[in-house]
Design a protein that fits this description.
By secondary structure, this protein is mainly β. It is 8% helix and 49% strand.
Amino acid sequence: MSSEKPPGKKTGQQITASQVAGVWRLRSARRTAYGSTSDWFGAHPDGLLIFTDDLHFTEAVTRTDLPPVVSGDRLSATPQENRALAQGTLGCYGTYTTGEDGSLASQHVLGSTFPDWNNTERGADDVHVTVSDGRLSQVLRLGDDDTVTLTWEYAGTAGAPTTANQVAAAWRLDSARADTPGGTVQPFGPEPGGYLIFADSGYFTDVLHRPGLPALASGDRLEGTDEENERTVRDTLVVFGTYTVDDAGVFKDEQVLRSSFPNWNGMRRDTSSLTETVHGDTMTEHLDDGNGVVISLTFSRQK
């Protein structure tokens, strides 16, 4: 990860579109609610925030102390494991706009692992972003007298690739199928939602979910019921990491940094188990999990 300042950033000034675009690695996440401040995702959170040059974004945040699911199966987690995973990871994706001065004006959250955020708008009263010395400060308003401050460090660009790279783009999920020993299932429903962004600097983020999940009864991500937590773990997935392409720009491999399914943390996948095939504005992903399950995802390029 680069520690250099992003080109064109001006210390102490509010961001412009050219300044916010890029890949940002999470350094801290602190919640201040009703006069009390605490760690939002533990003392050492991790995550990636990607703003593409063409106004798409993904955001993934996770605790770094989540243990693997004992059964090895995300769909067979215990209630205690579901609670830890649902509370310990968060992902969202969508589009953003800028004002006349180039500052961040709004975000349209198309989907999230926290269903209360699905199809919501964030205006100036909901999110505030500034940049200084290669760090991005993001303040989110969760409610009255309840805010979260996330600090991100610049990691790379997220624009049009300057070298051959077939996958570098924002991709929206169109279909998802899993072929299992027991038959074929649709892991995120018949009309799945999600973004996969491959940044030209070699980072990626997956945020996938089943649209239409009901909002949490409490309205608080940390107060989900056992049923709500199970639904979050079963019907959403977040993965982020790094990837490479070969000389022809064809996807070569990926390294998972973190996932909402912590059994995948640190996993390297090459084309023997994972392929990303691009034909025009369509990309097809095939993932063999090594346990008799083959997942097929189809994405459309976002412009």
